[in-house]
Write a structure and sequence with these properties.
The complex is a heterodimer. By secondary structure, chain A is mainly α. Helices cover 76% and strands 1% of the residues of chain A. Chain A has 20 helices and two strands. The two termini of chain A are 29 Å apart. By secondary structure, chain B is mainly alpha-helical. Chain B has one domain (5-503). Helix content of chain B is 74%, strand content 4%. Classes of the chains: A mainly alpha, B mainly alpha.
């Protein structure tokens, strides 16, 4: 029984699959020096898919389709749009990566991972969810270790694989226990069974803890964050950007749906656990970021901290909380991709990644410096960039839910954040190159970077100033949870 | 619909900043031209606004514009000015205009004169205008969310402006210290604001950041008692309140001239104004209960700031600490919570803003030519820079509170108000007037009228440029006109104060 709703519910995925197949068929016939064009194809295709999905793939009333495997609602749809956007930008950033960008496999892997993430956002069934998570993760293991000649990249890929499989195994164990207790794998039926009190709180809690380990690994919250800095540093930079944004947001999509829908009755206890985790995550991430000298490691720790801020919205367990998480992730995806994009653009020309290497950057390319400023100020939570509004919404949700102490921890943390973000900007604007001859060392931007970075910087400013439409969508997404 | 003058004033600097960033970096004079045109336009608009309010006999919030921004959370872009904020909008316009003039930056080969901003003027003016736009936004916002939005915009360009164009020796330290202090203050106040927002929702069922609405939110006395201090002090950090004033003199000293002018002239008013608008006006019961503490802090700041200024040997540090002392007077006026004190505080904000901008402008001119700010190394400036000397003396007279100048119009009601509350605080605080007179006169004699040291003569110090003179004359004009005709400002501030007193229950 194939109805239009079924078709609409997986429209983006169908198109992504078609795009991947086209790419696979076309790419081998291209000459070596043309392979870079796979990036144009991927990115252009994804933007087209984005528009088509917005036009024809919009959900109506939340419905379960494919035998309850997939939930077709605004929450999933909004996340899908975010993922497709992130992948399209990542494809652009990947194009001029010297080693990874010339190979079509990289783009196919990206699309495969995107497919998995999209399904993560809409899964309404534990089996579907597990498959989706694996589909999203396995291509990322490969992409992280894509630079075969680079030891650090190989290490990154292998480390990510080991940690990732371990975490997903534990999560799978949790899923199987849930099935054992509840007799169903459908997330939307779990809540009734757990609410009926047929299972002891302690037992339910340990099962949830197992699942939390798996998802905690995806979103890199403390204490499951150990892989992140090494993997980000070793991976090709655009992949690191994708890992830290889309992959993390996918984890949040799961966490929001899973906890809000399946365990609303245990909310007081799991929100407390998540609140503690959020506080620890923010603090550890920010404190460790203070001492970093490598820009990618700095961004890695900062992205750990940002997972902590976003968790405040989950902890709030309210409609505003869910909406603020979604909004936060939208702002964060644009911001962090921008930050990684700038790092990529800079290291492509210079081959350098230490923060001290950024000395004199504002004289070498004023525009790149301004974009970096926008990204870092947004990460620090300064207006008129997205990070400011996003942070205030999350904090507002926290205060509303009487988690004022958590908000205060978050605010103290954002002060630490301001310090190290501005410290990095000090090199860009204040310091000079050893011989003060910046005009002889320009940092030119190739066209893909110029397009990608311009789109991102406009996005970051739009989210931060004209925030009403984004918030309405986030709110519509959140509404589907209650 | 009427001409949206407040949005134009606020957003013009932002638009101008973007335009300047889009211009090629080597077209320095065109960039400066755009900056000056914008600043002039903003000054004229602000002046027109001020005159309308003054001569129209307007009361309450006027020129109100409301745009729904995010109705779901009750966030709206709501602008309006009253008798308190209209002078501050004008002040910002004046400081912006004169700041651009003295930063023009040209290089005079004959006199080895390198004044103003030579290095990357495009970025400098763009960041300066982001700051100015943020300041305008805070003064005109009637929505708490938007107030924070603009408040933060006004904070972060300071870091870049000081760190990039500041005084090499201390700029990194001072810029970071300043940013962290102000950021901590603002986020502490933010927690308070969010709590107020939700409490209002619980009390009245209204989900809104509108400050006029929040005035009748019915916060309980105990709630106000708890949350007044975080909110008030969070903002007052930017107002340079003792014991959180530490960032301020360091920031003044490290900042380039125009930024010092903005910083002391306008930014510190931002803190005092926001503390008054959000702290006192929305939590009046809390203000009554804590006014003794604010008064103590302010009185200490007044005397302590003056004393520290007295012992400084660096001209900029001296002015920096005198700002702490004078801003202490503003806080003292606020803490009285009575008519005289508040009127004095309102006028003092304007008067001190103009005066300190003038001081920093002239100090910058002297430093550019003599390459020193150490008072013992200076001398005989009056002969070579007569125009600047006259300006500095007028500023000094204002600083001392001499009748006939704006400082008197401001300080006299403050002391009257304080006397009405606690006479001995007035006595203690008035010591500062003597100390101020002492250090101002001693330093004017040393810097301007003592014989010029030999090593200074080698610098061939020349007179100030025409643009500098325009800036000095503009600032002096404001101080004298208010001093002679207090009616150009006092009645207007009084109308603003009436509103505050109404919220305080006619106290």
């Amino acid at each position: 029984m194939f109805t239009p709703v079924l078709f609409a519910s997986i429209l983006p995925e169908i198109l992504i699959l078609i795009l991947a197949v086209i790419l696979l068929c076309v790419e081998p016939f291209w000459k070596e020096d043309q392979r870079r064009n796979a990036g144009w194809l991927t990115s252009g295709g994804l933007f087209l898919i984005l528009i088509i999905s917005l036009l024809f793939g919009q959900p109506g009333e939340p419905t379960s389709v494919f035998g309850g495997m997939i939930r077709f609602d605004w929450l999933g749809f909004f996340f899908k749009i975010l993922f497709i956007f992130a992948a399209a930008v990542t494809a652009l950033l990947l194009m001029d990566h010297e080693k990874a960008g010339q190979r079509g496999e990289a783009y196919v892997m990206l699309l495969a991972s995107l497919l998995g993430m999209n399904l993560m956002a809409v899964s309404a069934d534990l089996i579907m969810l597990y498959l989706a998570i694996e589909t999203a993760s396995i291509p990322l293991y490969i992409l992280a270790g894509f630079l075969l000649a680079d030891d650090r990249s190989t290490e990154a890929g292998f480390k990510y694989l080991l940690f990732g499989t371990l975490a997903s195994t534990i999560m799978l164990y949790g899923f199987s226990l849930i099935f054992g207790f509840a007799g169903t794998t459908n997330i939307y039926q779990l809540s009734q069974l757990f609410a009926s009190g047929g299972i002891s709180v302690l037992l339910a809690f340990s099962v949830v803890a197992l699942v939390l380990i798996g998802i905690g690994f995806k979103i890199a919250i403390v204490p499951f964050q150990f892989w992140a800095p090494d993997v980000y540093q070793g991976s090709p930079t655009p992949v690191a950007g994708f890992l830290s944004t889309a992959s993390k947001a996918a984890g949040f999509a799961v966490i929001v749906r899973f906890f809000f829908v399946a365990f609303p009755d245990y909310a007081p206890s799991w929100t407390l656990v998540l609140a503690v985790l959020a506080a620890v995550t923010m603090t550890v991430g920010n404190l460790l970021a203070l001492s970093q000298t490598n820009i990618k490691r700095l961004l890695a720790y900062s992205s750990i901290a940002h997972a902590g801020y976003a968790l405040i919205g989950v902890v709030a367990f309210s409609q505003l909380g869910a909406a603020s998480v979604v909004f936060y992730l939208a702002a964060y995806i644009a911001t962090n991709l921008l930050a990684f994009g700038v790092v990529m653009a800079f290291s492509r020309v210079t081959g350098l990644e230490e923060i001290t290497d950024y000395a004199g950057m504002s004289r070498r390319n004023p525009w790149l410096a301004l974009m970096m400023l926008a990204a870092f100020l947004s990460l620090a939570g300064m207006p008129p960039f997205g990070g400011f509004v996003a942070k205030i919404f999350v904090f507002a949700a926290g205060v509303q839910a009487n988690y004022t102490w958590l908000v205060i921890v978050g605010i103290l943390n954002s002060i630490i954040g301001v310090y190290y973000y501005l410290n990095a900007m000090k090199f860009v604007y204040l310091y000079r190159m050893p011989n003060e001859d910046e005009e002889n060392h320009p940092v030119p931007l190739t066209r893909p970077y110029a397009i990608a970075l311009a789109v991102l910087v406009i996005g970051v400013i739009l989210v931060g100033t004209v925030f009403a439409p984004w918030f309405s969508w986030s709110d519509a997404a959140a509404l589907n949870l209650f | 619909m009427n001409f949206p003058i407040l949005s134009v004033i606020t957003f013009l600097p932002f638009v101008s900043a973007v335009i300047m960033l889009l211009m090629p970096a080597n077209r320095k004079n065109e960039i400066r031209g755009v900056a000056l045109a914008t600043a002039t336009a903003d000054l004229l608009l602000a002046g027109w606004l001020y005159l309308q309010y003054l001569t129209g006999g307007l009361t309450g919030y006027q020129f109100v514009e409301t745009y729904n921004w995010l109705p779901a959370l009750g966030i709206s872009l709501k602008f309006g000015v009253d008798g308190m904020s209209a002078p501050l909008v004008l002040l910002t316009g004046i400081v912006m205009f004169t700041g651009v003039l003295i930063s023009w930056g040209d290089y005079d080969e004959a006199h080895h004169l390198s004044a103003g901003i030579q290095d990357r003027p495009r970025e400098f003016f763009a960041f300066l205008f982001l700051l100015a736009g943020g300041v305008f936004g805070v003064f005109v916002s009637l929505d708490l969310f938007m107030l924070f939005f603009f408040y933060e915009i006004a904070v972060f360009p300071m870091y870049l402006l000081i760190a990039i164009w500041g005084w090499v020796k201390t700029r990194e330290y001072a810029a970071m210290k300043l940013t962290l202090y102000l950021f901590i203050g603002s986020v502490v106040a933010l927690v308070g604001a969010l709590v107020m927002y939700w409490t209002q929702y619980q009390n009245t069922g209204v989900l809104s950041f509108d400050m006029i609405q929040m005035e009748s939110a019915g916060f309980s006395a105990s709630f106000q008692y708890i949350w007044f201090l975080p909110v008030f002090l969070g903002f007052a950090v930017l107002g340079g309140i003792w014991p959180f004033h530490n960032w301020s003199p360091d920031g003044h000293v490290a900042a380039p001239t125009a930024v010092s002018m903005f910083h002391a002239g306008v930014l510190m008013k931002l803190g005092a104004f926001a503390a008054l608008r959000v702290g006192v006006m929305l939590l009046p019961e809390g203000a009554k209960q804590w006014s003794w503490l604010i008064m103590t802090f302010a009185a200490i700041a007044v005397v302590y700031g003056a004393y520290i200024a007295f012992v400084q040997t660096d001209l900029k540090y001296m002015i920096g600490f005198s700002s702490v002392s004078h801003m202490g007077l503003v806080m003292l006026g606020v803490s009285t919570l009575n008519h005289n004190g508040l009127v004095g505080a309102g006028v003092q904000m304007f008067s001190h803003g103009v005066m300190t901008a003038l001081f920093f402008a002239i100090t910058g001119m002297i430093y550019d030519r003599s390459h020193t700010r150490q008072i013992p190394e200076l001398g005989g400036i009056a002969k070579v820079m007569p125009f600047a000397t006259i300006g500095f003396i007028i500023g000094g007279l204002v600083s001392m509170g001499m009748p006939g100048f704006s400082g008197f119009v401001a300080e006299f009601p403050i002391f009257m108000g304080v006397w009405g509350r606690q006479w001995f605080v007035a006595v203690i605080a008035s010591i500062s007037i003597i100390i101020t007179a002492a250090y101002i006169m001693i330093n004017i004699r040393k810097v301007f009228f003592s014989p010029m040291p030999e090593n200074l003569q080698e610098h061939h110090i020349g007179d100030v440029t025409v643009l500098d003179k325009v800036a000095i004359a503009t600032l002096c004009f404001c101080m004298i006109i208010i001093g002679i005709f207090p009616s150009v400002m006092v009645p207007m501030v009084e109308r603003g104060v009436e509103n505050i007193l109404r919220l305080l229950g006619g106290a």
